[in-house]
Design a protein that fits this description.
Distance between the termini: 91 Å
Helix content: 40-55%
Order of helices and strands: HEEEEHEEHEHEHHEHEHHE
Shape: elongated
Strand order of the largest sheet: 8-9-10-7-11
Oligomer: single chain
Number of strands: 11
Strand content: 5-15%
Number of helices: 9
Length: about 280
């Protein structure tokens, strides 16, 4: 007899002995009697684990599955890790990671609602793709917190789908465009802005102190807005500009018109109040 056959034979004998030993143990502990339910056990974390009747090693018996509560916690931890990975990948600053605008299925902190942001809270609750939101108001009233919280809520519903989403400020958007070495690379970058499942542009209008934009800046905003509008891509925008006319003056009537049409009821979402960043 060859060595391999000897090893196979020994393995088969060992398996049979283990099965026989297990069946002896099962019978001695009442696991083969369907009429008598064994007592529950406890997992390592102290959760109760109840026996289940079903096939095991080819025989119907009572057996103890893995702890369902631990399994649920493990799945939830994996889900949170996946969400955190996407949040970081899309560029959301760490200071906003724990906020939620709607609280839907979220363990993050729900943003507090008051008279200064009630309109925004309502808009976030009623939000439905592919609508846009353009939030306006003074510096520091919470525009970025609210739209970023909504952004994360959207990511949480489908992390894989939103891995290509983008969070940026207008200044970052322009600076990154200027940093690339060739027109081809710049076009590729603009395409990522157009194709992003969700795009958040923070502080629209703050990249230059004067009213004028460079031709490339003007054309870039026009292209991104026009293409995302035509493709029905969710876009979230914060700005200190207080009216559609101000936006039109800076970016042109066509760009403003598309922004306005994409919002629910064609309106800016206004926020008021004091600068929450101020310690005074």
């Amino acid at each position: 007899m060859g060595l391999s056959k000897q090893i196979s034979g020994l393995a088969a004998q060992f398996k049979e002995q283990v099965n026989q030993g297990f069946m002896t143990h099962a019978k001695a502990n009442g696991l083969l009697d369907k009429k008598v339910t064994p007592a529950h056990k406890w997992c390592q974390l102290g959760h109760p684990v109840y026996p289940q009747w079903g096939p095991c090693l080819g025989v119907e018996m009572w057996s103890y599955p893995g702890c369902p509560k631990c399994a649920k916690q493990s799945r939830r931890a994996a889900s949170i890790d996946a969400l955190d990975s996407v949040i970081e990948a899309v560029g959301i600053p760490e200071e906003f990671h724990n906020w939620s605008a709607t609280g839907t299925e979220s363990e993050r902190m729900l943003l507090p609602v008051d008279d200064n942001n009630r309109e925004m809270a309502i808009e976030a609750t009623k939000f439905a793709a592919p609508n846009w939101i353009v939030a306006t108001g003074p510096v520091g009233v919470g525009k970025t917190s609210w739209l970023t919280g909504l952004f994360i809520d959207l990511i949480e519903k489908s992390p894989k789908r939103h891995r290509g989403s983008i969070w940026t400020t207008e200044t970052q958007l322009f600076n990154k465009g200027y940093m690339v070495d060739s027109p081809k690379e710049r076009s590729a970058y603009i395409k990522t802005l157009i194709d992003a499942p969700v795009l958040l542009i923070d502080d629209l209008g703050m990249s230059r102190k004067r009213d004028s934009l460079t031709p490339w800046q003007y054309e870039t905003i026009n292209t991104v807005v026009t293409e995302r509008h035509s493709r029905h891509r969710v876009t979230l925008i914060t700005t200190n500009m207080g009216s559609w006319n101000e936006i039109a003056k800076r970016y042109g009537q066509h760009t403003m018109s598309r922004m306005r049409q994409a919002t629910r009821k064609e309106k800016l979402v206004g926020m008021t109040g004091h600068d929450r960043r101020s310690r005074g």
